[in-house]
Design a protein that fits this description.
Length: 569
């Protein structure tokens, strides 16, 4: 099979984005480690070369090992043996291949054995792994947990755990409980401090924990006696050293992503160490981790979209009906063109969001070593605002588009797509979780709507209006300005009503309007740099125009008092 990096020019294109120079210069702090570590880059070009070399390795492992294992992993799945998880054979093979290649801890500092990569190549790796097997991406991608340790834990904890991650030890974030799903303020797992050995001990149950029997576990627990809300929760790192203080009660029998063990866990006097400050577990650390996880699900979703599109177009070219390949029928090639436009749009949004996160995270790392200048602080705040605004839109759109593309992939296959003989059936099942975990699409709307009402999306859209594009796209830009005016007028009507319930009722429509316009601009800007995005830019514009006008018409003709008609008794 061909390499998943080299056979996808859209990935290398994203590495050439103009903002990469700034991201890498900030991340490497002007390449101060070039003489300290022999594998540290000496300049921007050297860094990009390092990124591409590593991405080639990931692409090869994905195409040659992970993708061929995916069907068997889906059938075999993990098992619970003696309260421990045993991975499927293929899962273990995937993990060992990536660990031996040094592809865990990609973004961690070099002093702990990491590569100190920016988020862009890491998210690209996640996209490729997800394209090969979305379930395994949940195991490899949980190295995100190490970023939380690196950012918030003390030096002793960093020195203890981060080198282990770089060697391939697995991670999990243990948040949800039987009675605390999305409402993490309801977490009850108890953390008790023992001053004699300066350790915390965890007792309770966690449920729906991805890769639950991981070596290194970040656990949200109630540390403050008598507390009932998020202010009584702290964050802990526990070493799952298989001493039977953490037991796997069961593995959930899931619709998809079957290679990823989703566990119910019992903690019994499990030793743990406090990460950061007491009472900040949910308020600060989990929120940071969840934003990173949502970025990761964005990459996972784009990978699934790519896999669905790959299966659909290959089948459409090969399958013949009425004397010709079905890709020659308008009903099929229109469906495929829209799938590709959604894929390219969600990928453009993924890497735009990742660039925003990369810049503000780089400033945070610099701030740990020195005080930022006023100009740097202003820049940091701007990129942090953009990252906060774009992350929920990315998670919502990319996961919804992955589901739509998986659905359409089966439709292209017809009756064959309903059979387990074809990969599109597994991809369809794997895609379904993407709009649910790490915050449902409805919760992403809740997070995003404030950026509509405060004007953050509109401000960035107007910024995109000023960017140079090829003359051939001027007519598209003119239509985009008209679409933006529809969005602005709809937003004004909803906000001016000064009715919170009315805003919430229209939130999904307003957020979708903003997202469609943003992705249209990103595609036009990308198409101005490379003609391979021209067709998707044109097709997505037509698709988005219909969606925006539909939402705008609904909002303009809908009054606040009509909300009550939608209540279900």
């Amino acid at each position: 099979m061909s390499n998943y990096f080299s056979n996808n020019p859209a990935l290398k294109f994203q590495l050439s984005h103009p903002l990469m120079q700034k991201i890498i210069t900030l991340r490497e702090q002007n390449f101060i480690e070039k003489d300290k570590y022999d594998y540290a880059p000496r300049d921007f070009e050297d860094t990009i070369d390092n990124y591409e070399r590593v991405l080639e390795i990931i692409g090869e492992i994905c195409s040659d090992i992970i993708a061929p294992n995916a069907d068997d992993v889906d059938k075999e799945g993990p098992q619970v043996i003696g309260n421990r998880v045993k991975y499927a054979r293929g899962t273990q093979e995937n993990h060992e291949a990536l660990a031996q290649a040094g592809l865990y801890g990609m973004c961690l500092p070099r002093q702990y054995g990491g590569l100190n990569f920016s988020l862009i190549p890491y998210i690209m790796g996640g996209e490729m792994v997800s394209r090969a097997d979305a379930g395994f991406a949940n195991i490899w991608g949980l190295q995100d947990c190490a970023e939380t340790i690196a950012e918030f834990a003390d030096e002793n904890i960093k020195a203890e755990f981060l080198p282990r991650v770089c060697l391939g030890e697995t991670c999990s974030m243990d948040l949800t409980e039987p009675d605390a799903g999305s409402d993490l303020q309801a977490v009850q797992l108890k953390a008790t401090y023992n001053e004699h050995d300066d350790m915390w001990y965890l007792n309770g149950v966690k449920r729906f924990i991805t890769n639950g029997d991981a070596n290194i576990k970040l656990v949200l627990a109630r540390s403050e006696d008598g507390s009932t809300d998020g202010r009584g929760l702290s964050y802990f790192v526990a070493d799952n050293n298989f001493d039977h203080t953490i037991k796997v009660r069961r593995i959930e029998n899931k619709l998809g992503i079957k290679g990823s063990p989703t566990c119910e866990l019992v903690f019994t006097n499990t030793p743990a160490k406090l990460v950061g400050t007491r009472r900040m577990g949910l308020i600060k650390y989990v929120m940071s981790l969840m934003n990173g996880a949502r970025l990761g699900v964005g990459g996972q979703s784009v990978g699934v979209s790519q896999a669905a599109y790959d299966e659909a177009i290959a089948y459409a070219r090969d399958r013949k009906q009425f004397g010709k390949a079905i890709i020659e029928f308008p009903a099929v090639y229109e469906m495929l063109s829209i799938m590709k436009a959604k894929l390219d749009a969600s990928r453009a949004l993924l890497y735009e969001t990742t660039r925003f996160v990369d810049v503000y995270k780089a400033y945070e790392a610099i701030e740990a070593t020195r005080k930022l200048t006023p100009e740097e602080r202003a820049d940091y705040k701007d990129y942090q605002r953009l990252a906060d605004a774009f992350t929920p839109v990315l998670k919502m759109f990319s996961s919804e588009f992955a589901n739509q593309n998986a659905y359409d992939s089966i439709q292209v296959h017809g009756g064959s797509g309903f059979m387990k003989d074809y990969a599109c059936e597994r991809i369809y099942r794997d895609a379904r979780i993407l709009t649910i975990y790490e915050g449902t699409s409805q919760l992403q709307t809740v997070a995003a709507i404030r950026h509509v009402t405060t004007g953050n999306y509109l401000k960035q859209i107007r910024e995109y209006e000023t960017q140079p594009i090829n003359p051939e796209f001027h007519s598209l830009k003119k239509k985009l300005v008209a679409m933006t005016n529809l969005f602005e007028n709809a937003t004004k009507k909803v906000v001016d009503a000064k009715n919170p319930e009315y805003i919430d009722f229209h939130a999904r429509r307003l957020v979708e309007m903003a997202g469609h316009i943003i992705m249209c601009y990103l595609l036009v800007i990308d198409a101005s740099r490379d003609d391979m995005f021209r067709k998707s830019a044109e097709i997505y514009h037509k698709f988005a125009d219909v969606e925006i006008r539909k939402h705008a018409t609904f909002i303009i003709n809908f009054e606040a008092e009509q909300v009550d008609k939608y209540r279900i008794a």
